[in-house]
Amino acid sequence: MIVIGTTIAILVDAFTGFDMKKNAMVIxxxxxxxxxxxxxxxxxxxxxxxxxxxxxxxxLNIGALxxxxxxxxxxxxxxxxxxxxxxxxx
Length: 90
Prior knowledge:
The chain is an all-alpha fold. It has helices spanning about 1-15, 20-40, 45-80.
């Protein structure tokens, strides 16, 4: 049903020029809601998602720490290699 609705929206957009992309987004949101409905029914899958959501703040902290290291190494690289001249094409 969702595929048919999206196909109709694409055809209407192609032939009439009427923009139905926002309507397609609403249909996709219902698709996501259907996935959440399955999660509510499957208890073990719900436990896995709860665990993932509980560890998300810690993962964000680790990601921020990795970005800090990347930033430090970028500054170090600019500092160390700024004086090296690149080869100019002839």
